[in-house]
Design goal:
The protein is mostly helical. It contains four helices and no strands.
C-alpha cells in the first residue's frame, strides 16, 4: 500500500454510512454469489478446465462485482453525497469524481 492509499484507508475507516437493511441484504447476497463464483474459478483452475471457460467466469464475476458497486454508488449518491452537499460540503464532489474514476478503471 502506498502513502496515498494508506491515507485513504485511514480516512475511510473513521467515516460511517447508514445503509437501509434492504441495501445491506442486497449487497450481502451479491457478495455471497461473488464468493461462490471465486471458489468455482479456483476449482476450475485446479481441475485444468479450458482457459476460455475460466476467463468467461472471470468476466461474470467482474460483472457481479460491478453490479454490487452500482447498488452501493446509488445509495452513496442519494444518501451520503446528498447530505454532505446539503451541509455545504462541496469537497464531496471531488471525492466522488475520484471514486468514479476508480470504478471506470476496471
Amino acid at each position: 500500500m502506498n502513502e496515498d492509499e494508506l491515507f485513504v484507508a485511514e480516512e475511510v475507516s473513521c467515516r460511517k454510512s447508514h445503509h437501509p437493511d434492504s441495501v445491506k441484504t442486497n449487497l450481502t447476497h451479491r457478495l455471497n454469489r461473488v464468493e461462490g463464483q471465486i471458489r468455482g474459478i479456483r476449482k476450475m483452475i485446479e481441475n485444468d478446465v479450458y482457459c476460455d471457460d475460466i476467463i468467461t467466469q472471470f468476466a461474470a464475476t467482474q460483472s457481479a462485482l460491478n453490479g454490487a458497486a452500482k447498488v452501493l454508488l446509488d445509495g452513496h449518491l442519494k444518501g451520503c453525497v446528498k447530505e454532505r452537499l446539503a451541509e455545504g460540503d462541496d469537497a464531496v464532489l471531488d471525492e466522488l469524481l475520484i471514486t468514479v474514476t476508480k470504478l471506470m478503471r476496471k
